[in-house]
Amino acid sequence: MTDVDAATPSAVHTDLRRRLGDGRTISEQRAEDCLRRVTQWAGREVFYTPVSGGLQNSNWRVDVTGDPVAYFLKVPGEGTEDFIDRGNSHLAAVRAGELGISPRIVHFDAENGVEVIEFLEGYRACTNGDMKRWEVTESVLALQNAFHTIAPLPVTKTIFELIDEHLTQVKEIGVRLPSFAEPLLREYEAARAAYTASGLDIVPCHNDPMPGNFLVSPGKPMRMVDFEFASNNERAYDLAVTFTEYFYDEPAILRCIDAVYGTTSWDIVSRVQVASALADIKWGLWGCVNHQLNASWDYDFHKYGVWKLLRARTKVADPRWGQWLHAI
Fold it and tell me: Which segments does the entry list as coiled coil (predicted)?
């Protein structure tokens, strides 16, 4: 739930194009500091242009005189290093690039997490509207399935570890959760017990399927970007967080499950349905925590977080919830 990590023509603010050295704002000067650290561009004429779409990071198109391609610069937002392992996300991006499902990595600065990737000309970020078309969803699922085949990542964070991290933050900084959170978290513990008893199906997962993280262009293959939340995780979670992000109804959910698993058997459906509640708990807590940590950002994290938790409460109130837990 971070950024649109590749640019579209309409997202590039060409009227704000700057030459390296002409930065005026704090954001531009920070971008210039990052660009100067790209050693292969030393002494060359470099231009940079802001790209909209970043929630926590600032994004820029970069043009280097003499290079036939453009580049995309992502400057991590302050504080994001508290919950993102930059080395892990970079390795995930490299391996996805090697598979041909993500743009090529051009430069990575391990010290500050700054990343430069190939700018995908002619591509645009998907929207929720795109995800209503099955052929688009099918491409998303295919990319995720391909990513599941890469070598294990350095970081293993299951959905339970992801949620527990936020629960620790809630206690440490005194985040006030809605009144219904306590019974919801009891069901979370019941889900943990069910998954633990059956065993987790751990594979490398993208974990962040917001539509803007999938790029499309007519006649070209879809590409996946933004691996900041990638980790080795439960396979069912990667699918569940996807259809919760896209607001799918039950027929669409079953179609997704069949596409990924080749079956809609009761045990598999149960596993994924429970994972969808966990997805909403994770991102609901994320929103509530970020409301307190990042009050300066122009985004209503609290509203987002409470809404996600409300949807998780609806899921655990489903008459089939107990049956799903038992079937896992």
Answer: none
Euclidean distance between CA atoms 205 and 232, whole angstroms: 6
Q: How confident is the model at residue 121 (pLDDT cuts 50, 70, 90)?
A: confident
48: tokens are 């940079």
Within 8 A by CB and 6+ apart from 188, the residues are: 163, 277, 278, 281
**In whole angstroms, what is the distance from residue 229 CA to residue 237 CA?**
13
Look up the CATH architecture of domain 126-327: Alpha-Beta Complex (3.90)
Short-list 266, 212, 265, 200, CA closest to 238 = 200
State how far the Cα of 214 lies from the Cα of 209, in Å rounded to an integer. Answer: 8
- For residue 271, the surrounding DSSP H or E stretch is helix 266-293
d(CA 210, CA 120): 18
For the domain 9-123, what is the CATH superfamily, name and number? Answer: Phosphorylase Kinase; domain 1 (3.30.200.20)
CA-to-CA distance for 7 and 61, rounded, in angstroms? 7
- Tell me the angle at which helices 235-245 and 134-147 cross, rounded to the nearest 10 degrees: 150
